């Protein structure tokens, strides 16, 4: 969940605070690799397989994380201004993807694209995502601008080096009209 609440930390950055939240829609998949359900949720953040078949898995959660990462990078709501039916059509039928602008950090954009791969088998695991993000977090905690800069520069290489998904295919899709990829959060 992204909140545009009034904490000082939120105002210092892009005007929102990232929070992990459970809206009571979670399902336990400890003993299974996936769960099939007719649960409703946040349509704009759902993986294609969830929208098409109601299949919830860890890979679907990785897709949703990719949407959150996109939202944090570009400061917009995914698929803003579109009805739920239009979002489902765009994601499932047209196979459209959220687009990053030219100012987006390339490493973060590559990671988000990999997380939002259409094929669940091509998405990284959360363990792999964590391996990419931990060095950046450590650099941010150190407060060293040079360390943060080095970590951000290394992010692209680390994403490309991850096994289990194809970063090259993650760039797919052509240019999209801005009204279809979000609106400013504010």
The arrangement of helices and strands along the chain is EHEEHEHHHHH
Structural class: mainly alpha
Using the coordinates above, name the CATH class of the domain at 41-167: Mainly Alpha
What proportion of the residues form beta strands (DSSP E)? 5-15%
Side by side, the strands of the main sheet go: 1-2
Polypeptide structure, described:
This protein has a domain at 41-167: Transferase(Phosphotransferase) domain 1 (Transferase(Phosphotransferase), domain 1). The protein contains 7 helices and 4 strands. The chain has helices at 8-12, 48-53, 58-74, 84-93, 106-115, 126-142, 145-161, and strands spanning 2-3, 17-18, 34-36, 55-57. It has a two-stranded antiparallel ribbon with strand order 1-2. The protein is globular and about 45 Å long. The two termini are 15 Å apart.
Summarize this entry quickly:
The protein has 7 helices and 4 strands; from the N terminus they run βαββαβααααα. The chain is mainly α and 186 residues long. The two termini are 15 Å apart.
Keywords:
7 helices, mainly alpha, Protein kinase domain-containing protein, 186 residues, Transferase(Phosphotransferase), domain 1, Ser-Thr/Tyr_kinase_cat_dom, 5% strand, protein serine/threonine kinase activity, ATP binding, globular, disordered C terminus, two-stranded antiparallel sheet
């Amino acid at each position: 969940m992204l909140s545009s609440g009034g904490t000082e930390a939120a105002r210092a950055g892009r005007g929102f605070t990232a929070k992990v939240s459970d809206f009571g829609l979670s399902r336990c998949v400890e003993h299974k690799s996936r769960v099939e359900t007719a649960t409703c949720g946040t349509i704009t953040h759902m993986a294609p397989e969830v929208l098409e078949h109601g299949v919830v898995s860890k890979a679907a959660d990785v897709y949703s994380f990719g949407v959150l990462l996109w939202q944090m990078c570009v400061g917009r709501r995914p698929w803003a201004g579109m009805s739920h039916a239009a979002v489902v059509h765009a994601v499932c039928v047209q196979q459209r993807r959220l687009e990053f602008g030219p100012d987006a950090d390339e490493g973060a954009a590559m990671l988000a694209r990999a997380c939002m791969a259409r094929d669940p088998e091509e998405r990284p695991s959360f363990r792999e995502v964590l391996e990419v993000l931990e060095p950046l977090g450590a650099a941010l905690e150190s407060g060293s601008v040079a360390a943060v800069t080095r970590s951000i520069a290394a992010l692209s290489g680390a994403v490309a080096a991850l096994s289990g998904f194809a970063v090259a295919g993650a760039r797919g899709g052509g240019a999209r009209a801005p009204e279809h990829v979000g609106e400013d959060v504010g």
